[in-house]
Write a structure and sequence with these properties.
Layout lengths: L1 H5 L3 H17 L5 H18 L3 H28 L17 E9 L2 E6 L2 E6 L8 E8 L2 E6 L1
Length: 147
């Protein structure tokens, strides 16, 4: 077993890194990518400093462990710069906007047209054509106040 580790060389780490990255393509989950990157770093450093096999394994372990916080940092920063923050909750994007009532609010219920959709609204009684402001969105119903 020690003979196998003692033959670890630069090319072995580079090949191992590319294999791990190829596995990431087959089963995406952004896990194998970081291990592959760690193996590639060990391979590239082995070109420069020619460490022992123990040091190579230690470098791989350190790079693999350092990849976890790096992955979390990049994933968090990529999620925070989303171009569509309301992508999966579009009703939240309606809060604060004003619309014209299509049907009057009678007994607390009416409708408003938003783009090509008619939404059920709840709020104080108001005649058709009144301007209302969305104050809360809950599923497919909107709570409005007279604007």
């Amino acid at each position: 077993m020690a003979d196998m580790f003692s033959t670890l060389g630069t090319w072995n780490w580079l090949i191992f890194g590319f294999i791990l990255m190829a596995l990431e393509l087959l089963a995406p989950g952004v896990f194998m990518f970081w291990l592959g990157l760690a193996a590639l770093l060990v391979g590239l450093l082995s070109f420069a400093i020619n460490p022992s096999w123990q040091t190579q394994l230690l470098m791989f372990a350190v790079f693999a462990l350092a990849a976890v916080p790096a992955w979390r940092y990049f994933a968090r920063s990529a999620g925070s710069r989303s171009q569509s923050p309301f992508l999966n909750n579009r009703t939240k994007a309606l809060v604060g906007r004003e619309f014209t009532l299509e049907k009057p609010i009678v007994d607390g219920s009416g409708t408003v047209r938003i783009d090509d959709t008619i939404w059920r609204v709840a709020g104080p009684d108001a005649p058709a054509g009144s301007r209302v402001k969305v104050v809360q969105a809950d599923g497919a119903s909107l709570t409005v106040a007279v604007a």
